Amino acid sequence: MEKFTIVDHLEDLDLESKYLTHKAKDATSHAYAPYSKFHVGAAVLLEDGTIVVGTNQENAAYPAGMCAERVALYSVSAQFPDKVITKIAVVAKRKGGKEVVPATSCGQCRQVMLEYEQRQEKPIQVVMQSQDHRWVLAPSCESLLPFSFTKASLEHHEKKE
Ligand code: THU
Questions:
Q1: Considering its fold, how many domains does the chain have in total?
Q2: Which CATH number goes with the domain that contains 141?
Q3: What is the rounded CA–CA span in Å between residue 26 and residue 30?
Q4: What residues make up the domain containing 102?
Q5: Distance from residue 58's CA to the centre of ligand 1 (Å)
């Protein structure tokens, strides 16, 4: 399995990752997060260079809210179902704050990322800032969710019946 790239500064990542991360950072200004005040932006890069962004969308009925990553990925799947996703970057800022703060994708987002990765049969790289403030470039969604439950898990189950 390919390795994680972990660097102290965003500047130390490759140009494409840096650019995508900046797009995600710009998107944080469109987060709707009046409850957590944690503004998250995600930017998804497609194989043809198209970038689709998403931001977290909260709701007074808390569980109805949605993370930035899934807003972006569902939008890609709805608009460009046949295009290959190459990378997703995630950035967070606190309301009124200038600096980005660590945000690593939640388990549900990793689950959704993995499904799209398996659907397209090509890895999706993930860029995010870990809790120790270092930047992580994960080679795939699979690398972020070992021992996962997937479409194949359902199919294997069916065969045994
Ligand atoms: N959130 C995201 O959008 N992405 C992440 O990677 C972590 C969490 C959102 C969900 C919620 O609106 C807020 O951040 C606080 O959890």
A1: 1
A2: 3.40.140.10
A3: 8
A4: 5-160
A5: 9
Query: Which residues have CB under 8 Å from 73's CB, separation 6+?
Result: 42, 44, 54, 85, 88, 109, 112, 113, 116
Specify whether the backbone of 125 is left (phi greater than 0), alpha (psi in -120 to 50) or beta. Answer: beta
CA of 7 to the centre of ligand 1 (A): 23
Q: Is 152 exposed, middle or buried (0-12, 13-18, 19+ CB in 10 A)?
A: exposed
Compute how many other C-beta atoms are within 10 angstroms of the C-beta atom of residue 46. 16
Nearest-atom number in ligand 1 for the CA of 39 is 14
The whole-angstrom separation of Cα 157 and Cα 109 is 24
pLDDT tens track for 58-112: 999 999 999 999 999 999 999 999 999 999 999 999 999 999 999 999 999 999 9
* Predicted TM-score of the model (pTM): 0.95
Q: Phi and psi at residue 142, in whole multiples of 5°?
A: -55, -40
Instruction: Give the pocket of ligand 1 (CB within 6 Å).
Output: 33, 36, 38, 40, 56, 58, 65, 67-69, 90, 103, 105-106, 109
